């Protein structure tokens, strides 16, 4: 005896028409169909919106860290200068500041950053690829006129800590970067136009060398 | 004995209901994709749609200078080379309108007056509608060291296209402008949301040409 012996034979499937099961199957009334379609539209648009917002920073190459990644690779910070028309390559740069930048890739090893405090207020900050500042220090923290820290990855930090002798970790400030690549920015305030050469010399003197 | 089937074959037992045609489905997908990307693009302006802190006429986006930037702020930073002031470095505030809520323009004359935050120095810069400082001959910025400040410490600056006596900030004639106020090494950069409007200068429109 067949279990489905009383059942009618299945109708032929329409060949050219998409007949989805489940939520894509439209309800009967016009209003319900409209609401159903609207919900699907809003859900898909929301997913596209969120993906766009999340993916643009990941693949954009115009953020400051990507643009200036190659700056100061010789160990000296590179001064950011305006172009011939007077526009700074940094879109919102304060015209009353002097800025110099070092790019880094921790794949090449930890980075030692050092800068001398001067007469102009000075700050150093570390910016990441895709935006975000994870460390900043001003010259108020300078010791004997020197601002110095080491940028390293989590692995490099642990490796360094493992081979530290007694007291080594207290002799240097270690900053663990959440990303391999980024830039270190030295920014000095130009109080008067006549102070610009001094402020530019101050930021350009930032050294970014191999921390070994 | 008749036994009830466990499952109904496709199409049996239910009336034929309308289903989505391939063209409709494609239009729905493409339309929602366009709406999603378009709405994201529209929100990627010169300022992030979230994370703003307002103090009087001034606006700040303190999270742009931190490690925990919101996704829209991250998009803003990713689309062009910005170097926002880090949280411990200073505080940046922008104004696009005066006290009456009217857009700032080089057609009008303004009085910028009041208190400033404790800091090691501050600057006031005129920017275009995109938030970019004017370049070349039209560049215009003041620093605290440029100003004559009375004993009570309250600043008073006249911003206008035509030269004015006292502390004068030049505006480009006839253009829509914005003002950017930056305080360097201020202890208040983390607590900007708690500042009363009286802690920052007011921007009052005095008169307009034409």
Q: What does this protein look like?
A:
The complex is a heterodimer of chains A (212) and B (210). By secondary structure, chain A is an alpha+beta fold. Helix content of chain A is 26%, strand content 25%. Chain A is built from five helices and nine strands. Chain A has helices spanning 30-59, 64-67, 154-162, 168-171, 196-204, and strands at 78-79, 97-105, 111-116, 122-128, 133-138, 146-152, 174-176, 181-189, 207-210. In chain A, the strands form two sheets. Chain A has a five-stranded antiparallel sheet with strand order 1-2-8-4-5. Chain A has a four-stranded mixed sheet with strand order 7-6-3-9. The radius of gyration of chain A is 29 Å and the shape is extended. The termini of chain A are far apart. Chain B has a four-stranded antiparallel sheet with strand order 3-9-5-6, with no helix packed on it. Mean pLDDT of chain B is 85; it is low at 1-15. Chains A and B meet through α1, β4, β5 and β8 of A and α1, α2, β5 and β9 of B.
């Amino acid at each position: 005896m067949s279990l489905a012996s009383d059942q009618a034979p299945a109708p032929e499937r329409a060949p050219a028409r998409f007949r989805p099961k489940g939520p894509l199957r439209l309800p009967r009334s016009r209003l319900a169909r409209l609401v159903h379609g609207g919900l699907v539209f809003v859900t898909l648009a929301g997913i596209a919106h969120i993906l766009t917002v999340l993916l643009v920073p990941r693949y954009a190459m115009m953020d400051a860290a990507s643009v200036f990644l190659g700056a100061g690779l010789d160990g000296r910070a590179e001064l950011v200068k305006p172009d011939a028309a007077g526009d700074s390559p940094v879109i919102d740069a304060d015209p009353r500041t002097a800025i110099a930048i070092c790019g880094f890739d921790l794949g090449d090893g930890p980075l030692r950053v050092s800068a001398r405090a001067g007469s102009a207020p000075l700050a150093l900050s570390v910016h990441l690829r895709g935006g975000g500042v994870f460390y900043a220090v001003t010259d108020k923290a300078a010791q004997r006129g020197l601002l110095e820290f080491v940028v390293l990855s989590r692995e490099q930090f642990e490796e360094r800590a493992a081979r530290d002798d007694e007291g080594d970790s207290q002799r240097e400030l270690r900053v663990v970067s959440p990303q391999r690549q980024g830039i270190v920015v030295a920014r000095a305030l130009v109080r008067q136009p006549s102070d610009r050469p001094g402020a530019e010399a101050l930021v350009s003197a930032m050294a970014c060398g191999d921390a070994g | 004995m008749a036994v009830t089937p466990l499952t109904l074959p496709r199409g049996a037992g239910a009336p034929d209901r309308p289903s989505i045609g391939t063209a409709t489905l494609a239009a729905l997908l493409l339309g929602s994709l366009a709406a999603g990307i378009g709405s994201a693009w529209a929100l990627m302006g010169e300022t992030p749609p979230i994370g703003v802190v307002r103090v009087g006429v001034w606006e700040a986006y303190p999270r742009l200078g931190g490690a925990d930037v919101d996704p829209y702020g991250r998009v803003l930073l990713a689309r062009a080379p910005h170097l926002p002031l880090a949280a411990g470095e200073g505080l940046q505030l922008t104004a696009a309108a005066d006290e009456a809520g009217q857009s700032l323009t080089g057609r009008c004359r303004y009085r910028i007056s009041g208190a400033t935050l404790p800091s090691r120095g501050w600057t006031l810069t005129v920017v275009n509608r995109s938030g970019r400082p004017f370049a070349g001959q039209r560049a215009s910025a003041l620093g605290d060291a440029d100003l004559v400040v009375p004993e009570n410490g309250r600043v008073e600056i006249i911003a206008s296209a035509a030269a004015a006596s006292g502390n004068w900030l030049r505006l480009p004639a006839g253009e829509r402008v914005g003002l950017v106020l930056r305080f360097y090494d201020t202890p208040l950069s983390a607590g900007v949301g708690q500042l009363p409007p009286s802690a920052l200068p007011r921007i009052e429109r005095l008169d307009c040409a034409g």
